[in-house]
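Example 190, ligand adenosine-5'-triphosphate.
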Amino acid sequence: MVLGTIFVLYGPSASGKTEIQRHLTTDHLFRIITVTTRPPREHEIHSIHYIFTDKKQFKQGVADNQFVEWTQYNGEFYGTLKSSVEEIITGDQNAVIILDIAGVRALKSLYNNVTAIFIGADLESLQRRLENRNMSRKELTERLNKAKFEELSEPYLNLADAIVWNSDETPLEQSIHRVQTIISHGVSAE
Ligand SMILES: Nc1ncnc2c1ncn2[C@@H]1O[C@H](COP(=O)(O)OP(=O)(O)OP(=O)(O)O)[C@@H](O)[C@H]1O
Ligand SMILES: Nc1nc2c(ncn2[C@@H]2O[C@H](COP(=O)(O)O)[C@@H](O)[C@H]2O)c(=O)[nH]1
């Protein structure tokens, strides 16, 4: 195993990225926490799920060149701090991070040791899971449409080094195990 590898989980909203990341128990695996301007969900905690900030501070961070990459999603900003990534690239541990496709592209273009793991689920599973979230109908529709027209499309999947389907008929433990195997033994172990 090459240490200093960043494993990026990406895929549509509610595909299970956060849940899978939360259960990974691989040794020497650091979780890179990203920054967002979107409001926290009920259960989300500052510095654990995200570094929550406001738009003014985020824009200042962009101006100060603090981000290695940043993106906009549903009218909110999301970004990866340079400091959090460089700690891994120059260190001796692996890391896992959750990004959108722009983030995957950016990290792959900047660093060698980046493995992109697409976490997917069918639209029915995504809809059911999003309906369980306390979000507006408008946001739910936007997230589902993004999944339908972008995040489940070929260009999105083609960027993946490994694909893990985590629809409702797949036990979550099985998906966690697959991601854990990829992280511990590499994509070819799949
Ligand atoms: N295999 C599964 N079967 C049933 N439910 C699942 C499965 N995997 C994840 N879930 C549930 O789906 C919901 C969404 O998962 P999660 O929050 O991890 O998605 P996400 O991909 O991180 O979404 P987002 O990008 O919007 O933050 C959670 O309630 C989670 O428990
Ligand atoms: N390019 C980046 N994408 C990010 C970052 N942090 C999260 N994300 C992605 O944003 C969407 C929306 O996230 P949500 O928590 O509001 O559902 C999702 O695809 C995340 O993967 C980041 O720093 N950079």
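Summary: The helical segments are 17-23, 55-63, 82-89, 101-110, 123-131, 137-151, 154-158, 172-185.
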